[in-house]
Design a protein that fits this description.
Elements (H helix, E strand, L loop, with lengths): L5 H4 L22 E3 L1 H7 L4 E6 L9 H14 L4 E5 L3 H13 L2 E7 L5 H9 L3 E5 L3 H14 L3 E2 L5 H7 L1 H10 L5 E5 L4 H15 L8 E7 L4 H4 L21 H11 L2 E5 L1 H15 L9 H11 L8 E6 L7 H6 L11 H16 L1
Parallel strand pairs: 2-10, 3-4, 3-6, 4-5, 7-8, 7-10, 8-9
Antiparallel strand pairs: 1-2
Helix pairs in contact: 3-4, 3-7, 4-5, 7-9, 8-9, 9-11, 12-13
The structure holds pyridoxal-5'-phosphate.
Length: 358
């Protein structure tokens, strides 16, 4: 069977009818990798799986919700959509708007957006407005604008975004044949952890799985409002996709944690970068820094003796590392420069081989 996107695949679980136009870039069906090299280093008694959402058409999980949000917007006759974004929502909104033949307007916070994501919004023809402020300020502006003008808001407070994002837990369940013991996610605006938990519960209620996972959510230490119990005015982290001080789905995250018996905790930027490098160098998967918070959190809980032997832990890698090459280069070794001469190159190789075998 050809893959035609998440609405086609999981139609029964979504608020669509036969007359809903389906705007899809064939999102979803992303790979679930068993991270055998990573567990050797972390804890060989665990089974860790990586759900690589960077394989979606615009390079992040945002596409799962955007296909539904834009399809429903078109169903109601919308000619424009609007969002505030740390990058991936705008990249996805812009691409789906292009596919639907409508205009996207995106507000991005000053400075902190990765160049790859900005490039996506621009090339897909969105009107990009940079605001001198942070994400939370940009979001409050677009909320008011969408109430005033005929534009559909496609941030995750649009209920169809979270609906579409449920599809990832369906896929994990289908792939494993049941739900894992734990599911770990980075938490920014907290829409995704809300969506996954709802997805697992609906699959359980439909009899497709016989157990529910415990949900683990990880915020960056400099942007950890849920962990602290109050909004953070000036969120700071290298993981720009989760640099959010007042999550829109705060309640949904708490519900996911409490109903599932899970945890929401903070990981430092150092822990995030360590996990980011490990995922790339041990598993061959290049994810975004924010994505690596899911693995960083599992490493942290594992050190505290949280897991038991045989537990299956799925970590969602939310976005593609290619969006933010600057960070990868900043945390890696600088290439050595030599003359275009074989002996010069051999000298370096000899040294590298020697040090690799030491
Ligand atoms: C949007 C995003 C997140 C955060 O997801 P929330 O639903 O806002 O919690 C994490 N990682 C990446 C790559 C994202 O694009």
């Amino acid at each position: 069977m050809l893959w035609n996107g998440v609405i086609d695949k999981y139609r029964d679980f979504f608020p669509v009818t036969d007359s809903t136009p389906v705007i899809t870039l064939k999102e979803g069906n992303t790979p679930l990798f068993k991270a055998d090299n990573l567990v050797k280093v972390i804890n060989p008694a665990l089974e860790i799986y990586l759900k690589f959402e960077g394989a979606n058409p615009t390079g992040s999980f945002k596409d799962r919700g955007m296909t539904l949000a834009v399809s429903k917007a078109i169903e109601t006759g919308a000619k424009a959509i609007i969002c505030a974004s740390t990058g991936n929502t705008s990249a996805s909104a812009s691409a789906y708007a292009a596919k639907a033949g409508i205009q996207a307007f995106v507000l991005i916070p000053e400075g902190k957006i990765s160049l790859g994501k900005l490039a996506q919004a621009m090339i897909h023809g969105a009107r990009v407005i940079q605001v001198e402020g942070n994400f939370d300020e940009a979001l409050s502006i677009v909320k008011k604008i969408s109430e005033k003008y005929p534009m559909v808001l496609v941030n995750s407070i649009n209920p169809f975004r979270i609906e579409g994002q449920k599809s990832a837990s369906f896929e994990v369940s289908d792939h494993l044949g049941e739900a894992p013991e734990y599911h770990s996610l980075p938490v920014g605006n907290a829409g995704n952890i809300t969506a996954y938990w709802r997805g697992y519960k609906e699959y359980y209620d439909a009899g497709r799985i016989k157990n529910l996972p415990r949900m683990l959510g990880f915020q960056a230490a400099g942007a950890a409002p849920i962990v602290l119990g109050h909004p953070v005015d000036r969120p700071e982290t290298i993981a720009t996709a989760i640099r959010i001080g007042n999550p829109a789905s705060w309640k949904g995250a708490l519900q996911a944690r409490d109903e599932s018996g899970g945890r929401i905790e903070a990981v430092t930027d150092e822990e995030i970068i360590e996990a980011y490098r490990m995922i790339a160098s041990l598993e061959g998967i290049f994810c975004e820094p924010a994505s690596a918070a899911s693995v960083a959190g599992v490493i942290k809980l594992n050190r505290e003796g949280y897991f038991k032997e045989g537990d299956r832990v799925v970590c969602t890698l939310t976005g593609n590392g290619l969006k933010d090459p600057d960070t990868a280069i900043r945390v890696s070794n600088v290439p050595i420069k030599v003359k275009a001469d074989i002996e010069e190159v051999e000298k370096i190789l000899g040294y590298e081989i020697y040090s690799a075998h030491r």
